[in-house]
Amino acid sequence: MDLYIFQTGRKLGKRATGVENYYESEKILVEAYADMAKEKKTNIYTEGDESMYDIETKIQDAYRKNDLDLMDSLDKKVERSAAFREKFLYKRNEIQAYSIDTILKNSSLFVGVGVAHLPGDRGVIELLRQKGYTLRPIKMSDRDAKQKESIDKLSVPLPFYPQQAEDSFYSVSVPGKLYDLNEAYQRLDRQQFSDMTNGCYYLITRVKTHAAFIGKSEKEILKEVDSMLYENIPGKIISKQVINNNGYQGYDIVNRTRIGDLQRYNIFVSPFEILIFKMAGKENYIQGKEATKFFSSIKLKKLNTGNYTFSPQQGGFAIQMPHQPVAYLNTNIDNDERWEYEAIDKSTGNAYLVFKKSLLNFRILEADTFDLHMSEESFRSADFFDKQLDRKVVSFKGYPSIYTTEKLKDQSTVFARYFISGPDYYVVAARTKNDKKTVEPFLNSFKFEKYQYNDTKNYVDTFMNFSVQSAVIPVIDEDLRALVEKTEESSPYITYWSKTRNGFFKNKITGEAVNVNVQTYPKYFHIRDTAKFWKEEIDSYLENKDLILSHIDSFQMNSTAKGYRFSVRDTASSKQVNRMILLKDNALYSMVSMGDTTNNKSIFIDSFYNSFLPLNNKPATLLLKSKTNIFFDDLFSTDSVTNSRAVQAIPSVYFDETDIPLLIASISRLKKSDKKYLDIKSSLIAQLGFIKDTSKPVIIDYLKKLYEQTADTSIFQNSILAALINQQTRSSFSLLKELILQDPPVVENNYDYVFLDGLSDSLQLARNLFPEFLELTVLEDYKPKILQLLAKLADSGYIKPKDYESYFYKIYFDAKVELKKQLSKDGKLMEAEFKKEDGNSVMENYNTYDYNNYNYNKNDNLYNNAVLLMPFYDNNPAVKKIFDKLVVSKDPKVQLKFATLLLKNNKQVKDSIFKQLADKSEIRADLYTALQKIKRLDKFPATYNNQLEVARAFLIGCKNYTKIDSTVFMGKTAASYNLKSGVVYFFKYKVKKEDDWKIGISGLLPEDEKVISIEKTLVFMTDKKLKDDEPEINQFHQQLKQLLISMHKGGKYFYENTNYGMGYPDYYDN
Predict the structure, then answer these.
(1) In 3D, which of 937, 945, 959 has the Cα closest to residue 1023?
(2) Looking at the structure, do residues 223 and 295 belong to the same domain, yes or no?
(3) Is residue 651 included in any domain, yes or no?
(4) What is the reported pTM?
């Protein structure tokens, strides 16, 4: 409707404008949602006689009948928020009425607004009446079809403007600016102008073919295009003519769509790409003069001949080409841009290219050899490359490089060189059917050059609060940025830490970039130790253990700003990550860029770092001073927002010994009538547990007193006990023992007992809780955790059997009960197996492995009891009987667990038990691992104790399948990973009999076949089906290669991108 009104007005020669501004409306929408979130009372419609569907139907009927009052009343009935309505509807009504009034003072107006804005006392109609206008309804009883048809046939002549491609390869005239139309799911280079006035559009699409390099002529490509026209041109092709534009052959095509609209295409083929110029409009619009102007204006750039020394406009490299190459910025291969420079020598048929890509991974530096291999792997498309004839890792003028010779499937040869220079990756390649000497001048002429920039300009960023002299100035939509700022300011959600603000300064042509990150510290944050603060900040950039700090310099910008400049390297990489961190008032500014170890400095990056200046627009905040006084004032503030922010900040505020009196006073000051009383009090109590009370211990005595005062409130008792555990001292554990035995808190939710898990953090302290703590086992809620802790203490040698011997019969009784539960589960497993053998099970792929795993996790109580009973095994036949039953359980997980427990404690276990377990392929790897852990691999059955069967076992065990139908050994190969060398085994496998064969890889195992061990890092069921049209062993090697690459941090996502592209994802993370 909006578009039709606009088109009709323009066709009738009327001026068109809006009564609202888009960004202003978006800001109002943001404010409306924020106000709605803050609103305490909202209207939730409760369906009574009328459902929401009924009301929506009535609104639609009222709209058709022009009943504005009924629409308004129904809309209010289901409106959730009065605050939202106030902003999003009423405020916009005022803006629209004001705009209408302003226009009407100077001219007549036909205006369309959304129907919801019209009715009511605060609707646009009433607002205009208040401004003195007389309004009356005009009902349209009939429609003039002939008049509509005559208007639709009108067209508005528009001026055409010449435009040029970014690489200057084509120029064309269009009646408006061409906008990029790149979509993630299509990955095409497209530019479009939509002529909304006349209802048509102009579209230019470029499809890279690299035809010259893959050995295809323009005629062959044009023939392929011709074969695809029928499927890709909508409707019926009316005409197709062969055309020529400056030496480039193509087609001029006119078609009519199924709804009767004409479209026209000009399609051209170059040695490097296909260009498609399209115009589409309603009915026969493209037969007019506009189409003639558009298609007759297309000009394609002719390739010059003769040797040409080429260097991009802003430098970076230089190389000898047979003509000025076609330069193209490919944004459609993956998430990163790639510059492509291609040329062809038509006298020899030789084709040349240079690909350049800048990858900015500031957190991961891989070895140069790996990065070069990634470039090589990405460039070598299996569709065209046959085999590699030669490969050398060399140094090119100090830069890491690989030189390769490749045979293509068309029997031509590719000579390729791969280079790394800082963040820049290059492929320099030539394809020829002639002697190498014909392409050597091209290959040998490549050299690096410094990047060139225009003069720097002063850039002031009020959003991130800094200024800088930079050769790269980001293009920012100020309206959009204002909207983002408004969104942050209007957010109803309270967060202690403000969002980090980021700025990315990247030159599109050179690829050089500086990332700026600003973290504003929260209100209550303070730096306790400046040396420790700076060390932790710098160390945070060295979390990857492969990275080292190559140099560091401190600097003082002024009395309130201090910082460091430093570089991070990897010993196997020529790259270098350069960083600067600067603390100014309550903000930490971080800058990062990437260079190399040759110390070739960048004009752009040097100027940026040297001129960076934080702006001092806000009052200075002393980060070295504690803010706890401010925090406690805010905690009891009468302002609800200030109070809410303080409450949320409690877990994040650092309290030390000096704050103990204030914490105790605040806890005492809280009243039951206070909002969130329980949460605040328990949070403050918890903070006492993290303070090391060394000089004048008062926390322990206070917590004891508080525990006694809050005996009727378990949430506080839990918080007090958790605080005592967190203290991790003898006195805190002693008091814990006293309090919990005297008055144990009991709650409904088992999760509230999670504080007891902290007792395991110090088994030495926890040892003193027993045997008295066993009294708590009479409480079912406490029993599992107490027994678990006791079992850990016993297993670790902190507690001896005599310490809990008096509780033996209680533990024995519990073990008997748990055993009966397990035997019941065993019976169900046997029943399921019988049904499966009889063919009665409807669950053909019934996952007993998962079921066993589930039982295994649920048998913690049984296992803990067993650990505690183990010392009595030799002298008490009743205990031995329990274990005798467990090691013959029908659940192999249970059987394994208790057989290895016995073996660990030097008890006899029949070899037949381990043979029975090893015979189950799905449990064999678990058996091997369990025996390896207790250093008893001598019990692993000899039948399976060889490299082949161990590799098979771990492959089968790597996924939770009930049973693998079959695995077939296909071979093995040498491999290395993470500085370890060995072999991997190849298997093809089927999960079900009717499945296709898939690729399995298992390793790393020692090179010596007689040595049995396995590094499980390379064990994978890939789920990749074996193809019939490729040699199977080649597919295994390809999968292994992909696996090894993906194991690197820098190659983790490499194979997620299936497009033909050189590189893996950028990481702009600071």
Answers:
(1) 959
(2) yes
(3) no
(4) 0.82
Q: pLDDT digits over 236-267, tens only?
A: 999 999 999 999 999 999 999 999 999 999 99
- The answer on 607 and 593 residing in a single domain is yes
**Domain harbouring 343, CATH code:** 3.40.1000
* Reduced 3-state DSSP string for 654-679: CCCHHHHHHHHHHHHHCCCCCCCHHH
Q: Which domain holds residue 106?
A: 2-43+79-152
- Give residue-wise pLDDT tens across range 896-913: 999 999 999 999 999 999
pLDDT confidence of residue 844: 43
Question: Which one-letter DSSP state was computed for residue 627?
Answer: -
Q: How many domains does the chain have?
A: 5
Provide the pairing of β-strand 466-470 with 513-520: unpaired
825, two tokens: 């589960």
Helix (H, G, I), strand (E, B) or coil at 406: strand
Distance CA 1016, CA 956 (A): 12
- Tell me if 958 is assigned to some domain: yes
The predicted model gives 1059-1068 an average pLDDT of 35
Judgement on whether residues 1018 and 929 belong to the same structural domain of the protein: yes
Phi-psi category of residue 1048: left, alpha or beta, with phi > 0 → left and psi -120 to 50 → alpha:
beta
Task: Please identify, among 451, 467, 499, the residue that sits at the C-terminal boundary of a domain.
Answer: 451
Distance of alpha carbon 679 from the chain centroid: 33
Q: Which of 614, 642, 675 is the last residue of a domain?
A: 614
**Per-residue pLDDT at 65 exceeds 60:** yes
The pLDDT of residue 1017 is 84
Q: How confident is the model at residue 685, as a pLDDT?
A: 94
CB 737 within 8 A of CB 768: yes
Q: Which amino acid is at 730?
A: R
Alpha-carbon distance of 817 to 862, in angstroms, equals 9
Name which of 82, 98, 87, 93 is nearest 27 in CA terms: 87
Secondary structure tally for the chain: helices H, strands E: 35, 33
Quick one: 200 and 105 in the same domain? no
The answer on pLDDT for 839 being more than 70 is no
